[in-house]
Amino acid sequence: MPRRMTGCPLLFAFLFAAGLVASTAGCTAALSTAMYLMGANEIDAQYKGFREKKIAVVCRPVASVAFRDPGAAHDLAREVNRLLGQNVSKIEMIDQQKVAAWVDEHYDGDYTFTEAGEAFGADMVLGIELQEFSLYMGQTLYQGKANARFVVYDMQEGGRVAFERELPQIAWPPNGGIETSSRQESQFRRQFIGVVADHIGRHFYRHDPAAYFAQDAMAMQ
Questions:
Q1: What is the pLDDT of residues 17-59, one digit of tens each?
Q2: pLDDT digit string (tens) for 208-217?
Q3: Cβ-count burial of 37 within 10 angstroms (0-12 exposed, 13-18 middle, 19+ buried)?
Q4: CATH number of 198's domain
Q5: Which 3 state secondary structure label does DSSP give 104?
Q6: Which DSSP letter does residue 60 get?
Q7: Banded pLDDT at 108 (limits 50, 70, 90)
Q8: Which of 22, 28, 49, 142 could pair covalently with 178 via S-S, beta carbons 3.0-4.6 A apart?
Q9: Range of 25's domain?
Q10: Residue 196 forms part of a structural domain
Q11: Domain annotation covers residue 144
């Protein structure tokens, strides 16, 4: 009786069959679809140390951002928290409402990210410095702009810096503005917060880089 193919041999057979169909049809659509379904387009996380850890996400804005949009840092931290909890397996996220309340008690910003981690008994802290956040390009056009730097502190190793990145400026949509008459500011703001959070979050889990194009298309809807 022929042996049933399992594991890698089955994968290669499936890809070979998909490639044969694509060749017969004179296109690569079938092969591309097969690769997409198997996650071949995804790239790995740059940092994988959050698995099975208790994580606090803390976002601290510079003074100018805090004055112009007092809720931006809280909203960004909440969305990053949600993305990590959704996409990193076996992770424990500290309640973002508790984090926000603690940060509000230190409204003057006179705290360190590691102090926040100690306050919540976190294994690790993702500290986000929101250096720029705006929604408008002129008076009648939306275009979100943000700059952020983020650092992962390992509280189990005395607050050691385990990972850090500074994002290039995010402009969304990247190629121009959106008429303010086309949507409410709250809707655009919520979408842009999601874009910035995604730029941060995807450093910590597998993701499809082509999703950026989907975000740009969403901006014009």
A1: 444 434 444 444 444 444 444 445 789 999 999 999 999 999 9
A2: 887 655 555 5
A3: exposed
A4: 3.40.50
A5: helix
A6: E
A7: confident
A8: 142
A9: 8-37
A10: yes
A11: yes
Same domain, 15 and 60: no
- The DSSP result for 149-174, as a single string, is EEEEEEGGGTSEEEEEEEPPPEEEST
Same domain for 92 and 177?
Answer: yes
Q: Which amino acid is at 131?
A: Q
pLDDT per residue as tens digits for the range 181-205: 999 999 999 999 999 999 999 999 9
Angle formed by the axes of helices 29-37 and 8-25, nearest 10°? 150
Residues 24 and 98 in one domain: no
Total residues found in the chain within this entry: 221
Domain assignment present for 159: yes
Token pair 């298309």 in the structure block, residue: 217
- CB contact at 8 A, 189 and 135: yes
